[in-house]
Amino acid sequence: MNTTSSILDGNSFRADAIDRLDPLDRALVERRAHVLGPSYRLFYREPLHLVRAQGTRVYDAHGREYLDAYNNVASVGHGNPAVVAAVQKQMTALSTHSRYLQDGVVDYAERLLSTLPAALDRVMFTNSGSEANDLALRVARYTTGGTGVVVTSEAYHGTTSIVSDVSPSAAAGPLRDDVIAIAPPDPYRHDDDGTVAEAFAARVAAAFDRLAERGHRAAALLIDSIFSSDGVFPATDTLEPAFAAARAAGAVVIADEVQPGFARVGEAFWGFARHGVVPDIVTMGKPMGNGIPVAAMVASSQTLDPFGAAVPYFNTFGGSSVPIAAARAVLDEIVGRRLDANAERIGEMLRDGITDMAERFDRIGDVRSAGVYFGVELVEDRQRRVPASGFAQDVINFARDEGLLISVCGPTSSTLKIRPMLTYTLDDATLLLERLDRALTRSARAS
Questions:
Q1: Which of 290, 321, 372, 441 is the most buried (most CB within 10 A)?
Q2: How many CB atoms lie within 10 A of CB 441?
């Protein structure tokens, strides 16, 4: 049985390294081990003991400042004043669920839907992306009458029982018989016949054929539209044939936008929109509330109405007053400050800078990005493209020492995952490049 998780264990503290820690941090690690469940993980070889954050920076218990280039929750900055004020104001006025008439949830739903294609015209609110994906799978299975689901090989879609069954990167054992994982559309390692998009679509079609042979009717193709856990594959025009293949098999298409959504990928606003496609269901979470738990599932009436007519749904906090106030403030910040355009500008600067680094560091095999979402694949040599997992571990830990927080992703934990916030300035981006350069230099010397 698999006892590790590529998404959780790729950048985790090991208990046998506790003797290297500062006494204050060591004591907290030991206390934590005595009271928290053993499934939890800590980041980095020497975990961070954080005490506060503001804007793009976080601060540890020793007074050290770090540039946050990883956090996918505080997308409009830690402690964003507009979000804090909105939550505080709503908390003092009313905090209750959506079974009472309230203007806030309807106003926000209308504004959220206006950012999406017209066909996606209904929204249901949840607490987390896990719950949103759970609900999406329930809807897909009810609508199609099937149970078969196709996902990508390192996908992570959440922690509920239903969703963990379709999250290979966090699975504790083999996938269920009605779930098949396929390789993502990876232009860097593509060696199949035809284009990357055609090859991915062929894998989707073949997977649904295998499910049918096992006796499982198609229910859903569930994908993260930037393939963030698979290694970050944002290349455009890779999804349309796959969507068509899934629908030809009778499946509903679900786009998991928890990672790329809300302008992380730039002016497209949603990851799937970069491909010129429209899913049947879209799920979202994390950055939606900038630290307040709020998430949503959006679907077309055609997809959702049969489920809604037969299955009542209620979520105490999903769609309640305070989370909706936070979500509304986040959307105001993104739209009002044109943070989608800022993501394009900052992303272009960072991509140019990291591409320049690749001319000096031959371990950088590929640089992939959309907006301010980056995957930098590290290899032992560029000819054979052998993953440089150990080197990647050195880079993220040296980056931590340099005051830059990033992580890794992919099946071999050899791709740097870099996710600056939407509020990054040019100075922040310059600092990121400087600290990443120093981390790569130190790693190269150590190897």
A1: 372
A2: 15
Tokens 């016949």, located at residue: 193
**Contact criterion met (CB below 8 Å) for 379 and 363:** yes
CA distance 403 to 346: 19
Around 243, how many Cα atoms within 13 Å sit in the side-chain half-sphere?
Answer: 17
421: how many CB neighbours lie within 10 A of its CB?
Answer: 28
Q: Are 321 and 345 part of one and the same domain?
A: no
CA gap 197, 265 in Å, rounded: 20
Separation between Cα atoms, residue 20 and residue 14, nearest integer Å: 11
Domain carrying residue 28: 6-78+339-446
Residues 74 and 140 in one domain: no
Own/partner contacts of 57-62, CB < 8 Å, gap of 24 or more, are 58/405, 61/24, 61/25, 62/22, 62/24
Give yes or no: residues 13 and 95 share one domain.
Answer: no
Q: Would you state the structure tokens that stand for residue 258, as one six-digit string?
A: 């928890």
pTM score, whole prediction: 0.95
Q: How many domains does the chain have?
A: 2
CA 83 to each of CA 123, 329, 331, 334, 371: distance values in angstroms, whole numbers, following the listed order: 22, 5, 10, 11, 23
